[in-house]
Amino acid sequence: MKDISKDNYISLDEAAEYLGIKPVTLRNWIKKEDSNLPAHKVGKLWKFKRSELDVWIKSGDSAKL
Asked: CATH number, domain at 39?
């Protein structure tokens, strides 16, 4: 059975902790046009899915920042 907890949206602070970086660094990455960071704006908040972050890291796009 698929682990649905990986598909839930997490906050910017939780995503930063998951990636092992500071929230301000994640905000700066979001601002970069060529980051391809899988971020979703919901109202005024940025949300992330762990599974999408994992794919982004494995693709090597995270190393381009």
From this structure: 1.10.1660
pTM attached to this predicted model: 0.84
Question: Residue 53's domain spans which residues?
Answer: 4-64
The 9-11 sheet, strands edge to edge: 9-11, 45-49, 40-42
The pLDDT tens digits along the chain (65 residues) read 455 555 799 999 999 999 999 999 999 999 998 889 999 999 999 999 999 999 999 998 888 87
Q: Per residue, what are the HEC states of the chain?
A: CCCHHHHCEEEHHHHHHHHCCCHHHHHHHHHCCCCCCCCEEECCEEEEEHHHHHHHHHHCHHHHC
Total domain count, the chain:
1
Check: CB of residue 61 under 8 Å from CB of residue 36.
yes
